[in-house]
C-alpha cells in the first residue's frame, strides 16, 4: 500500500509553476452511479470547448504542451490525458463510459477542468510514490499487456518496488495500478502549471469530494493542495493512520 506521495526536487526546480492536488479516497465500490454528475461535467467541458474553439487554446493545456516540449516529448503525438479526452469530445462527441464508475467520474472531472487527473489503486502502490525523472530501471505495464523499462529521464511516477505508474508524466497511466472492481482505496492526483492552478485544483477537489459523498456515504476523502516545497516534502497516506497518526492531511467527508 502507498505510504507517501511526493515529487523529486529537481523536477520541482525545473517546473516552479507546478501545483498538485492529491486525494486519498476510501470506501470505493463498483456499485456507484455517477451518470448525472458526469453529464453535468461534460456539459461544462463542451461549453469550454465552444469558448476556446479548440482544446489546444485552453491555457492549462498550453502550459502542459510547453512542459512536454521542454522534456523532449512531442505534445501532438503524446497528448496530455485531459487534452486527449477533450479532443475526442470536440471531434466526435465521444466519451468512454464503459469503465469503472470512479474512473469515468475522474475522466469527466479531467475534461471539465482541462487538467490531468490520475486515479490509482492505492493498494497496488508499494511504499513511497515519487514523481520525477525516471531512473531507467523501473517497469511500466501497458494496457496491452506489454511491460517495458521506462527510459531514463522520462518523467514518471515511481514506487519503492520499481513500478512506474505513468508514461510521459501525464500522458498514460499504468495498467498495474488501474482502478478495478477490487479497488477499495484510491489515490487521485491532479496537476497544473497555469496561472490559476491553485484555484482550479481547489475547485476540482471540491467537486471530487462532493461526488464521493453523494454516492458513497461511508466513503472518505483526504485531500491537499501541494506547491513548491510542499511538493518535495509530500504527504503521507492516511490509510496508515491505524498504525501512526499523521496530522498533515486535511480530512473531509
Provide the fold topology:
Layout: E1 2-7, H1 9-14, E2 19-26, H2 35-52, H3 59-70, H4 81-92, H5 101-113, E3 117-121, E4 127-133, E5 139-141, E6 147-149, E7 155-159, E8 166-167, E9 172-173, E10 185-192, H6 197-215, E11 220-227, H7 229-233, E12 235-236, E13 250-252
Parallel strand pairs: 1-4
Antiparallel strand pairs: 1-12, 2-10, 2-11, 3-10, 4-7, 5-6, 8-9, 11-13
Helix pairs in contact: 2-5, 4-5, 5-6
Tell me how many strands there are: 13
Q: Radius of gyration in whole Å, from Cα?
A: 17 Å
Strand content: 15-25%
- The number of helices is 7
Q: Could you give the distance between the termini?
A: 22 Å
Strands of the widest sheet, in order across it, are 3-10-2-11-13
Output the helix-strand order.
Answer: EHEHHHHEEEEEEEEHEHEE
What is the SS-derived class?
alpha+beta
Largest sheet: 5 strands, antiparallel
Unreliable sequence segments: 242-253
Q: So what's the overall shape?
A: globular
**Helix amount:** 25-40%
Roughly what is the average pLDDT, rounded to an integer? 94
Tell me about this structure:
GO terms for molecular function: ligase activity. This is Phenylalanine--tRNA ligase beta subunit-related protein. InterPro entries: B3/B4_tRNA-bd, Phe-tRNA_synthase-like_B3/B4. It comes from Achromobacter spanius. The chain has a five-stranded antiparallel beta sheet with strand order 3-10-2-11-13. Helix 5 packs antiparallel against helix 6. The protein is globular. The chain is α+β, with helices and mostly antiparallel strands. Strand 8 and strand 9 form a beta hairpin. The C terminus is likely disordered.
